[in-house]
């Protein structure tokens, strides 16, 4: 027989060492789960002894409880007279007031939002998103690691590649179709996995599923989806629509296994294991910064740990012990092709090939993990070379994808020219989703398609196979130019050339 | 017997699928022409069922109808009581008000315009043009493709070339004369073809013809001239004045043939076939952006097309199927020397030589077509090298021109030093034309001449033949430096060195 | 029997050639010491004939008198009725008013100072320090030499190093412990010597000693400490806590010998001889600038000197004649390992190894001495290579440290990867000390630790030994990019791409 | 018997083709001289038919008339009742008003000018000069050619050279003395020739002579001095003080010969022939711009000329026909060592050596002649190498100087390290002269000396001979980095990292 708790009683379990929380009328004892929460401890502590349902729904699907929470943490029901659990009133009022103000700001921004036809390039969606999303959501999506070096470098690096266009080629017909893991797609781009899409749109990943389906491309479903796997799979617009699963390997391998097998049975066609997130990166702009310490177990724990006690204080959500030996087990529990997402050096690309992966994603997690990681496009040529030296033919045996910084159709062209099978996009889809919903995502995909088609025409490459490496000039690809410090004395004593006479008055 | 239509009747044919328009009292059914309009469909749709004469004249010469419109599209006359065709009044009022406001702004700008003597360099014309031209005209002229990378790179690249001046050379006499396609010119520069000059000046290309003639240089007549070919040819200031024709190859080859033969019979001395415009490029600043989609047949069509139906939806104005095999036919219908304009890699330069062209123009269409195309000056040295490897002597057998980014006399010097026969200018002539008319264009040409003469004197090269490749340092020509992302935290915590004490108060 | 002087009498010895000063009730004749004062002559002249105790205590420990002042300069006591020595009242009032104003400003700044939890990176401490320190203190700490080129380059250079992360490595346990001169430390960072810590905090170097001890790292004690050596040594939090001594070699070698032997007897475990300060560098922002001339003996003296008289006019505080022959004597008077601090080229690194040093610090004195000195991280790889060519194994025989510009955990990682045994920090510790005292320094060290631990995890290097040179991409390390002068005419005539339509109004 | 003219009569000769002017009561017919005026025709035309004495004295010494004006141009005296010649009153009033306003501005600026002690570096003088000089004077001094590229590059290039300091060297004694053309100087810097010093100071070059003498360095006297050669020579502070003469070769070789022989008889010890000014360069900021056309004979003349008439229209002041064959004649008329000033490529350096010159000055005329000329310091190493290949030892047989962009003592060090015998300064001396007169110039020279001495100490190079090429890192010297065009869309959608929370409010 199930226990029933009064609100009064629940509210007393509100400390780090005795922490209850109510979700959908059920009471959970999260004391032991606290250090394992991927989003940091603070957000849970803030709701300790209270009903956290509203906040929970903002980020998570209901099935996440079943997937990640050990069953023994469920301890009972809330009593019948269910209601708002008392809390520090003045705190809450202030918070509510702030929320109301932000809601007003957003409502106003949405009313004056430009019509979708004025989105002329993918950057425009981000400009709108800054205004119509909640501040915390925009900060979470747009933030990078450390000094944001890698995040910005990801797109910057494409600027170091110039074209070598061919003319006098018949480009009446452009065919952008290609294959990914054996399936045909309308053009070489997929929507990559990003966590917590509900922060952008109340229907979250379901919308991305529909837009991808209609546009004939693949959606990669995130482990940390805001919707349940069922919901996302059910959102397919036709039965054979393609979806992949992005996976964080949990310390509890049974959880991982359950998720893989559920996905496989639901018809998911590729397993993308994230390998660049042994720990969550320090994100400069996101509110999670303080949680960096928490994630490592708090400052004191870090200290003690680093002094050599060696106690394992990391959260269990992503297993930091994962290594190449785990590949055998992964392959034993699924028939889906396995792709490693987050490869950042050619040596690891070769290892992935040797361990029987179907491919890799060159990725640095959108610049959100380790600052000064190289941009995927920069290492792509050396990865392709290394694979070829190994006897692997990346045009058929093994698929190499890149993500991070794709903002123009010409970026896709450059990646294909250097040997990628396709590219993934993350933030642009979130911004389009957050601003204009499904229509926005379709519009964004069309922008990419139209720009790619135009680029192929003007480059003299009517099909994907015609896109060759001699069409790009990568001479400067590896060059990172850090400007000499500025000579302010010379700069400020120099008087700039300006139009003179009446011209200066215009 | 010709049919006559009432305004009332005409105004009912105002949809995409049933589209009539009145030009100079004649009624045309443009339903089938719509997707072929090089300027996009929108501008035609806006005038559907109405009299479009005023707008038409702003851009086009009357003979363009005969040249490009199939005769069967003419369907009759407007009835006697010809007048303004009714339209949505409030829309039109608003538009007219806006136009009146802009006219006032322009009138004021023209009244306070600096005297021409204050134009000290070619940039100054652009500064004035921004104020005295219509906003749409300035946007059309000044816009580039994508992120404007290539447009700006075109001039930027000249900054990567430094001089190696020779001193103690007798430079009392400077001789800038040279030959282009066998004819003598006063200095190695020609006015290149640019569409719709009437947006800059009511007499359009005729003014450029006169200025070029007076200065002893060649004018290249555009396919999309605002004046008719006859008018431009008639504007010659002396009978032997040299003109070339720039040509877009139409899907309807007969149209193309008629235009070539008309030009040849009018004494035009060179045929410059544009090869870098299989489709119009996406211009960031121009109002044409939305038309990018239209040009490709609208978003839905692009989608369907790219899904593999392969239906040809491109407009027929420029034939996207043009390729090297067409060269034989071109040569069969004209005796004019044929030059390909828009070559962007040495391999295509060699092909042009092999196919019997008289020369090439290294050009990326002023950065208006494919962003990240290389600047012509950057590829010039490798083109010259490749031609020499092929056994071609670019100093006599085959002429290599460059256009794009020429803004200083020293830019001309650099191009000549690297093997160009001459350079073409586009935008600077338009700005000079738009600001000061014929006097402005002559003044501009004199600025170029004076700067080139001074440069030749100070370089110790008294004649064009003395301009040698060892006079320029091209060591950095191929280097594209993309700055590392900025370290804002370090930058903002650093306090700049500034003059101190009383000095800081000055 | 000791002489006693009246205030009246003292106040008459107030010129350059007859200069008395009172410190703690004692009268000193500093006429001969004046040119040897490391901080310049002006600050002493300002107090000539007066009681300088208050200002003296702001910078110096009491024992500095015994250490550096020849005993014969002490000439007697002040008479009983000790008080403020009369001076130019109006001057003093003005000065006091200014000080009061600054104190108010600082008090206000401290009241609104952010809580320490908002320090998310090491730059944040500097931002706070600018507001809560005295202007003169912040100027002294933050200033560099000449145009501040080297000072900024020190951190900049780390941006030219990018990572090559390894994934699929078990990083459950991170061990950052390592050894320095044979002793274990919690992570590879030490607090380097910086002069006059009391300008940051009234307890000066004692606070650094406590923070270092608690965090398990080494403190390097400066020659120009504000506290006495005894005080700093006594501040150790446990008896075996490690400290090193930084040493300026005095012209009076007996002084030097006394200081070395005192330190050795107090248990100091390493002797770091500064070799990059034959003369104090010109610091652009510091108030010391005028003293640059003084240090060289005044403008006239410099002139006469440089004309060839060759008279030695340098202050004796740091011996400019020090050279490699002195190494034998240094080794003869101490058993402490000797490390040379301020090596800036590989040739000198090799010489240090040949002369039996225990190690070197690659350093340019934080960019405070010679502008355009290279950054330590830039020369580290060539130093390591040269040592290996010499048969020296820098991983065990000889220790190479770097300081200057360390601001991120990733900077430490990069230095270790390139062969450094550890890194020293200077300014960050001063800013943390000045803002939040001991808690601030500990917090700062934890930031470095946490960032390094995270970096090691994401790089796939769980221990210090796992940090290898193939994990960093140093291809651009030696590249100093000075931008071409800006083409202002082109820049100002180009109109930037901006979001358009309603988007531009957001 | 001399003719006498009335003012009335003189005022009627006021056109281009009949042009009289009064100077010091004498009447000159300048009709034929007009196109030869180095300062352009406009300034003379403005005074046609008038008394130009006041303006003349602002720029010229009286002896310039004897030196450069053919005697037959003197035509008589002004009648007794000498006075102001009538002119367009309203014009003159306006001009006078403007001058009065400027004088007021300058007087105010001089009253609030910082004390000389606040000049901490050579840039500071320029900051002051901008405020205390006449606008036209500052524009003339500070202007460069074209886009000011070369002018700025001259100093910029020194930033591409970094140091490799040696430590543990006895630097107690610094000896900066060296030899120039066989004579000893106090340090390796001379004051180069600059025209019209009176625009900076009423006593012009005489002040520079005194300051140079007191500081033991050489002054180079300009052809276009504001003072007469006698005056400048008489300003020597001791009889053996060294002076050189800078020479523009006149079309009238007798004038040139007279000037050389006068200088030689006055004890001038070196002849520096300027070879980089066949024509005056286009100076963007100077009011002379319009005169660029005049200098070339007016726009129409240029045109006609360039069309091939070949008529010589250049002014005769500097002979554009000067070439290597003239070397024999130069050597025949003087015993002074001959140095060519304005060499810009190694080939010409070798030619100068072969033609028996005593040395060369690598110079681009301070960036005032040909834009995109290389900086002297950049070509110095290749010049030294080429001379050595030729069998010439630049350390004794042949002296190589550099000028342009020297602003720091470290710049001098770098030039010496790369093989220069010494450096020349131009603008800094003018600014110091214009702000603080003789004291200012001495102060400036001391700044250079003190910075050089400090640099030598910290570099471990106690004498000039110790300054070796391995002390500088020139790896990036030849690298001209032109930044890729900026990606404004990406830049503006990126939100900068900023201090957060309360920190952002500081």
Automatic annotation (TrEMBL), chains A, B, C, D:
Its main location: mitochondrion. Residues 114-477 form the FMN hydroxy acid dehydrogenase domain. It is found in: Mitochondrion intermembrane space. It is an enzyme of class 1 (oxidoreductase). InterPro entries: Aldolase_TIM, Cyt_B5-like_heme/steroid-bd, Cyt_B5-like_heme/steroid_sf, Cyt_B5_heme-BS, FMN-dep_DH, FMN_HAD, FMN_hydac_DH_AS, L-MDH/L-LDH_FMN-bd. It catalyses: (S)-lactate + 2 Fe(III)-[cytochrome c] = 2 Fe(II)-[cytochrome c] + pyruvate + 2 H(+). GO terms for cellular component: mitochondrial intermembrane space. Transmembrane segments: none annotated. SUPFAM superfamilies: Cytochrome b5-like heme/steroid binding domain, FMN-linked oxidoreductases. Residues 2-79 form the Cytochrome b5 heme-binding domain. Its EC number is 1.1.2.3. GO terms for molecular function: heme binding; L-lactate dehydrogenase (cytochrome) activity; metal ion binding. Keywords: Flavoprotein, FMN, Heme, Iron, Metal-binding, Mitochondrion, Oxidoreductase. Its cofactor is FMN. The keyword Disulfide bond does not apply. Gene3D superfamilies: Aldolase class I, Cytochrome b5-like heme/steroid binding domain. Signal peptide: none annotated. It holds the Pfam family FMN_dh. Homotetramer. In the C-terminal section; belongs to the FMN-dependent alpha-hydroxy acid dehydrogenase family. In the N-terminal section; belongs to the cytochrome b5 family. This is L-lactate dehydrogenase (cytochrome). It comes from Phascolomyces articulosus.
């Amino acid at each position: 027989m199930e226990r029933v708790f009064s609100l009064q009683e629940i509210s007393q379990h509100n400390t780090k060492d005795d922490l209850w929380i109510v979700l959908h009328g059920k009471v959970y004892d999260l004391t032991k789960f606290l250090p394992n929460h991927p989003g940091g401890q603070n957000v849970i502590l803030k709701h300790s002894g209270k009903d956290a349902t509203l906040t929970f729904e903002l980020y998570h699907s209901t099935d996440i409880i079943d997937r990640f929470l050990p069953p023994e943490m469920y301890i009972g029901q809330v009593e019948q007279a269910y209601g708002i659990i008392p809390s520090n009133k003045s705190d809450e009022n202030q918070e509510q007031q702030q929320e109301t103000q932000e809601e007003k700001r957003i409502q106003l921004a949405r009313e004056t939002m430009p019509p979708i036809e004025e989105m002329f390039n993918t950057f425009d969606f981000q400009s709108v998103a800054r205004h119509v999303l909640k501040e915390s959501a925009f900060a979470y999506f747009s933030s990078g690691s450390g000094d944001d070096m890698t995040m910005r470098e990801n797109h910057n690096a494409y600027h170091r590649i110039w074209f070598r266009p061919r003319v006098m080629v018949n480009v009446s017909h452009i065919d952008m179709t290609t294959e990914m893991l054996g399936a045909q797609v309308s053009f070489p781009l997929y929507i990559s996995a990003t966590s917590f899409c509900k922060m952008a749109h109340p229907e979250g990943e379901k919308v991305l599923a529909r837009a991808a389906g209609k546009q004939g491309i693949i959606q990669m479903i995130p482990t940390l989806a805001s919707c349940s796997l069922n919901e996302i799979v059910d959102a397919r617009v036709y039965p054979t629509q393609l979806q992949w699963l992005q996976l964080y390997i949990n310390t509890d391998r049974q959880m991982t296994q359950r998720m893989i097998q559920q996905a496989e049975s639901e018809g998911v066609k590729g397993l993308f294991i994230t390998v660049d997130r042994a720990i969550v990166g320090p994100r400069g702009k996101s509110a999670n910064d303080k949680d960096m310490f928490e994630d490592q177990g708090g400052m004191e724990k870090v200290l003690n740990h680093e002094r050599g006690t060696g106690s394992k204080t990391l959260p269990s959500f992503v297993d930091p012990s994962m290594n190449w030996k785990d590949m055998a087990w992964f392959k034993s529990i699924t028939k889906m092709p396995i792709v490693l997402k987050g490869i950042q050096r050619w040596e690891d690309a070769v290892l992935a090939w040797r361990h029987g992966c179907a491919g890799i994603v060159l990725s640095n997690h959108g610049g959100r993990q380790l600052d000064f990681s190289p941009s995927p496009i920069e290492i792509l040529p050396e990865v392709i070379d290394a694979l070829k030296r190994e006897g692997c033919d990346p045009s058929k045996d093994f698929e190499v994808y890149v993500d991070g910084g794709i903002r123009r159709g010409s970026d896709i062209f450059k990646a294909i020219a250097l040997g990628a099978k396709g590219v993934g996009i993350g933030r642009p889809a979130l911004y389009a989703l957050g601003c204009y919903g499904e229509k926005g995502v379709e519009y964004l995909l069309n922008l990419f398609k139209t720009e790619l088609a135009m680029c192929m025409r003007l480059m003299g490459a009517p099909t994907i196979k015609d896109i060759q490496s001699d069409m790009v000039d990568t001479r400067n690809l590896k060059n990172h130019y850090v400007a000499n410090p500025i000579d302010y004395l010379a700069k400020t004593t120099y008087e700039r050339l300006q139009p003179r006479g009446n011209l200066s008055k215009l």
